[in-house]
Amino acid sequence: xxxxxxxxxxxxxxxxxxxxxxxxxxxxxxxxxxxxxxxxxxxxxxxxxxxxxxxxxxxxxxxxxxxxxxxxxxxxxxxxxxxxxxxxxxxxxxxxxxxxxxxxxxxxxxxxxxxxxxxxxxxxxxxxxxxxxxxxxxxxxxxxxxxxxxxxxxxxxxxxxxxxxxxxxxxxxxxxxxxxxxxxxxxxxxxxxxxxxxxxxxxxxxxxxxxxxxxxxxxxxxxxxxxxxxxxxxxxxxxxxxxxxxxxx
Length: 249
Ligand code: NAP
Known about the structure:
CATH superfamily: NAD(P)-binding Rossmann-like Domain
Largest sheet: 7 strands, parallel
Structural class: alpha/beta
Distance between the termini: 32 Å
Bound molecules: NADP nicotinamide-adenine-dinucleotide phosphate
CATH topology: Rossmann fold
Radius of gyration: 17 Å
Strand order of the largest sheet: 3-2-1-4-5-6-7
């Protein structure tokens, strides 16, 4: 197997479970050193750190809240101390607090915006000085097709993910001349703890509406991340790549 990310270092937010974990494993298999964060799941994070080092790369787990700018700045400082350089930032940490607008509290709206959208500002702002200095870097933001099409009961989540797209496109325009690329991956329906809470009949219904007739795996998202993190995508910035089995076409 040709390893596509040899000697690179990535920061991945929210990698103790789900899609982030899948990205961390795929990156380590491709020769990438991985610094990753979690908020609560310290046991899973320690386990993953060990698993990643098994692929002969450097790996370290950091407890850091992506919705806090203070935590994000501190994280950057620590990762630079531990790894010396950073090539890739993956803003993956995210949450849902679904409800119809008539039942949505201000707290649940703010919470989702802070964790899904402000977190992207926090980490991008923390890392930009490093990327500007080295005149290279790839930022990959994990959005959602819900940010492109909306979804009933997810107005807060859809707003946060649509915001991520606007933020990404603006940053791509700001930083392109310094060889810093910024893109979004918009997954469709991916099997993780975020989606396993949904009732069986809803999952079956979604599956029937997917042209490729299967639910996505975290590896499907990870493969697109490898592409956007590697030199294979050197001329691609400001884009939204859907990883959704053709669901939103
Ligand atoms: P998940 O299984 O619920 O995992 C979420 C991960 O993010 C966990 O590792 C969690 O850490 C971490 N996290 C959450 N908030 C955090 C914060 N403030 N600071 C640091 N870490 C935080 O979710 P997922 O399904 O893998 O989703 C990952 C990303 O993909 C999210 O941005 C989500 O919106 C997006 N997405 C998912 C789907 C899908 O179908 N699953 C579809 C489209 C987009 P702890 O374990 O410590 O809590």
